[in-house]
Amino acid sequence: MTSVLESSITSSTGQNMALFLRALRGENTPRAPIWVMRQAGRYLPEYMAVKAKSNFLEMVRTPELACEITLQPVRRFPLDAAIIFSDIMTPLPAMGVQVEFNPGPQLEPLRTKTAIDALRIPDQAEIAPFLEKAIQLTRRELEPTGTPLIGFAGAPLTLAAYLIQGSGSKEFEDFRAFLRLEPALAHTLLEKLTEVSIRYLKAQIAAGAQAIQLFDSWAGLHDETTYREFAMPYNARVLSALEGLAPRIFLAVGAGHLYHVIQELPCEALSVDWRTPLERIRQLIPGKTLQGNLDPAALLGTPETLERDALRVLKSGMGGAHVFNLGHGIFRQTNPDMLARLIDIVHGFDRTQS
Amino acid sequence: MTSVLESSITSSTGQNMALFLRALRGENTPRAPIWVMRQAGRYLPEYMAVKAKSNFLEMVRTPELACEITLQPVRRFPLDAAIIFSDIMTPLPAMGVQVEFNPGPQLEPLRTKTAIDALRIPDQAEIAPFLEKAIQLTRRELEPTGTPLIGFAGAPLTLAAYLIQGSGSKEFEDFRAFLRLEPALAHTLLEKLTEVSIRYLKAQIAAGAQAIQLFDSWAGLHDETTYREFAMPYNARVLSALEGLAPRIFLAVGAGHLYHVIQELPCEALSVDWRTPLERIRQLIPGKTLQGNLDPAALLGTPETLERDALRVLKSGMGGAHVFNLGHGIFRQTNPDMLARLIDIVHGFDRTQS
């Protein structure tokens, strides 16, 4: 079924560009391309085998390991894109911030003018040369199949959440307090993170990343006023700086109350978490490619409930360009066979039918 | 300033009913009543003094202690309502579920037909006689000031989240998977929780609770389809069963994507978290009293930012009945003086001015 559909796509469009990149250019493709967040991750036995022998930071900072981990899901499944194995904390050490993983990020909370002023803004080439190398290696490996490679970064306010709080947190209350107590310092920090994020993403694109995703994983903490002041200008600057360099995907989690604000961002695609149906976002933002938004818990269901849930997302994504994905990262408990099944469902869904 | 306003209210309306209850009846009161979620809690030194000598379950299950803790914030601050000190897990032991706190709830995950079938549906008087006693004691103590007392319960799907997951969780993935793997068992569990919640809330009202709040603290985990299937019918049944017995407040957290669904619930008031401006909810649901919705982080700011943030909420709440509250529980780091300041700001805000 998949192969019939794929050949009909090739013959009718006559294009060789990967389906994922066509969808990011706004094309209402006859089938939806699919990749999944954290596809190179803990649900894969081959990932756990690498992890048993190295710590997380080594895995991120060793180009051969990062390349290998990036390729693992692409070897196993017919995914339509790969995403370089890394972490949103990756650019921070070059700024002078020590980050450890235990297993979530742990760092010295950054809350003083002295500490924020001391943050370096490294040259593009200094930020993460190991990641550039990993991207080059991975691109070379992906060459035969033409599978596109995605680079990524954390949005400035999401990075600031970890930097100010000092770790992940359910409520990030110290961070939320800091935005009120020290707004000027917060803006200084966000300026620096914005500049570094631009350089970091440009470095990834220069190394071969064919699309980028900006992860605002903690957008959902904020009300609209806060988000407009502390997130939007910086997100807009990062995304604008990449205009024309590579297609840009913006992800916000828990942001059902913010899409009317987020729609103003300059990007080709918006990645939607599982909470809001894509058709509602399509009505609000008719021009953009939508990415998402299957609940990652759907992969923990039965094959039948998975099909039901995936078809609902596929139908909800019709009427415009759609990149199929989960609404958030794949859970480590996921049986890889369920992901194989999902890819099959997505590849078998003909978007030219009404 | 407060006293001038209060006396003008009394003289202009000639009513003796507490401001909080008037607002719950839909009255666009000249000033907003205020109480705050977790007002009897860890930010108060007098609470910590009780906690140093007893564990959490003892505090909940000893009427004199629960009464004392309930009264602590009302003695210290001119709050417009008290809420009985308890926990949403309180009705579970009478159903046969062991709950420990460490510090969050810990229980044996409930995932089999045998375990769910074994859950008891206790008589109203059996569920929490200690809580009924605590409510009676507290009402007696509050008599001289006329401060109304609120009772509460967890919404069935939020209770089910803890019961199935076995504890609090960032993602509740086992619970979300269970709704797909065992929907019939989930419905059986929700039926039982609904019946017990109705009896439990009726017991609180019979003991003297003058309003009730149903806490759907984990509503925000779910997409609309899931929420319509597993939450709405049970929330509606609990709330309907209390019609005419006491005013009903429904709270959903992280539910910015669900208010168009939640608006169908039979209740007098909707408690909104800090993410969505009250005026937007008012447009969607013109008839209901709105409760909320200051970001609890506002109390960790400066007196100036607190005033700015509180005034924004007060203005956003105009045009209909408003009970001022936080959008979520008060943080334990809060300086009690900041809550005093907030109450002063709310009491000083004249809602009859445009």
Note the main attributes of this structure.
globular; 354 residues; two-stranded antiparallel ribbon; homodimer; 18 helices; alpha/beta
Provide structural commentary.
The structure is a homodimer of 354-residue chains. The first copy, chain A, is built from 18 helices and nine strands. Chain A is of the alpha/beta class. In chain A, the strands form two sheets. In chain A, strands 1-4-5-6-7-8-9 form a seven-stranded parallel β-sheet. In chain A, helix 16 links the parallel strand 7 and strand 8 (289-294). In chain A, helix 9 runs parallel beside helix 12 (183-207) and helix 10 crosses helix 11 (173-181).
Short description:
Chain A has 354 residues and is an alpha/beta fold. Helix content of chain A is 49%, strand content 11%.
Oligomer classification: homodimer
Distance between the termini of chain A: 18 Å
- Overall 3D geometry of chain A? globular
Helix content of chain A: 40-55%
| Major sheet of chain A | 7 strands, parallel
Topology order of chain A in helix (H) and strand (E) letters = HHHHHEHEEHHHEHHHEHHEHEHEHEH
Give the chain pair forming the largest contact, with residue counts: A-B, 35 and 35 residues
The radius of gyration computed from the alpha-carbon positions of chain A, rounded to a whole number of angstroms, is: 20 Å
Category from helices, strands and their pairing of chain A: alpha/beta
Query: How many strand elements of chain A?
Result: 9
Proportion of strand residues of chain A: 5-15%
Low-confidence stretches of chain A: 1-14
Mean pLDDT over the full residue set of chain A: 94
Query: Which strand order spans the largest sheet of chain A, edge to edge or round the barrel?
Result: 1-4-5-6-7-8-9
Q: Quickly count the helices of chain A.
A: 18
